[in-house]
Specification:
By secondary structure, the chain is of the alpha/beta class. The protein contains 6 helices and 5 strands; from the N terminus they run E-E-H-E-H-H-E-E-H-H-H. A hairpin with an 8-residue loop joins strand 1 and strand 2. The C terminus is likely disordered.
Amino acid sequence: MKKHNPLQFCMRSGCIEVGCDEAGRGCLAGPVFAAAVILPDHFRCDWLNDSKQLTEKQRDALRIIIEENALSYAVGTCSPEEIDQMNILWASVEAMQRALAKLSMMPEHVLVDGNRFRPYRDIPYTCVIKGDAKYMSIAAASILAKTYRDEHMKQLHEQLPQYHWASNKGYPTEKHREAIKEHGITSFHRRSFALPERQLTIDFKV
């Protein structure tokens, strides 16, 4: 695994800080997943990085390291129906809050990837644009969210292989859009997303 410039361990030292990130915002199908990760003070990993900068094999290897070393971690989701009701931004925030609620210890500061969030209880939070490339806990959360979501989409692929979700993970690839044209949409598709006329130029990495 190629090393990169090391990420910062935390924003606020001396407190229990949790990193949050999501996976699947730009997809046409499947839930949005989010993870929350609290890392121990001694944790260091030179290969940890934003999940989008890593291969699937690298993400899977790092997931094991994160789960073995984290003080606490959890994953939350919002279904396609909830995404349609809330919109994808707030569904992503809700999935993060569900992950936070599952943690085995209470954080004292929340680091969130992106620029929008809603207060979780009375815990202070900080939004960091491209935080998954800046802070270890957010990068760790991005890896867990991505790997858990990929697993879920592979399971859905077993039910509906014609949509190629094992490879495209629900993103708007050409094969996925063609499958929607040929077979129609499913209960796993997000009906609030234009299918398939829009969402054609989203920047993503499967």
